[in-house]
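All the exercises in this workshop are built on plain-text protein records. A record pairs a protein's sequence with a compact description of its fold. The structure tokens are whole numbers drawn from a learned vocabulary of backbone shapes. Once this layout is familiar, the rest of the handout is easier to follow. An example says more than a description, so a record of this kind follows.
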Amino acid sequence: MEQSNRTSGALWYGVLACWAVATGILAWRFLPNLTPDFLGVAQVFLLACLSYFLLTGVFNVVVNVWSRFLHTPNPTRRVEGTPRVALLYCTYNDFEREAAETMRRQTHPVDVWILDDSTDPRAEEHLLAEYAEKNLDTIVAAYPYFVAKGIPGSEKLLLAALAHSADEYAIYRLDMASALLNCGNAELEQGVREWCEQQSGCEIKTGEAAIWGASRWGASSASSGGHP
């Protein structure tokens, strides 16, 4: 950083030096011919404009030449393995399972995240159908919904989804673990603690807010009057 600052300062001094020399040449050419009238004022104004254009022109030329030909390339960090890619399926009352399945069938490993701000009851039907099929990918992606739904007996499947997230969606596992730990379900809290003991670098505390949703167990079912 210090070397970069020194280089930038040297460039700026070089630009100013070139501008000062060019402006001096223009002044030497114009000032001896000034007359004490309107034409003289116009000549001074013209000199100021030319000086400004020289400054911007020299600056652009120097900066472009330096950045294109003389800059030091930024070091790049080598990425080991195959980087994962996340695809976001954003929809509003227009979810199509075929489209989501198409997004999953890529030649490159991808994580498909469905963002559905839906008021259509069929959206919930899709999630419940995925839950019935024990689709762990969907449960990982929509775990705040299943926590808020609080389906009786779903704890084991949610914990299985957490273990699945450790393998397939490692970047989100602590967020999901925090949500399950703090949702108010004793079985999930115990299961997350046991899971966390087997993980390296797992430091989740009770009461810590989850990044991806902090639903309370059964919150949506309590407000709507029950479970499906």
Observations:
- Strands lie at 85-91, 110-116.
- The chain has two domains: 2-70, 85-224.
- The longest strand covers residues 85-91.
- Residues 2-70 form one domain.
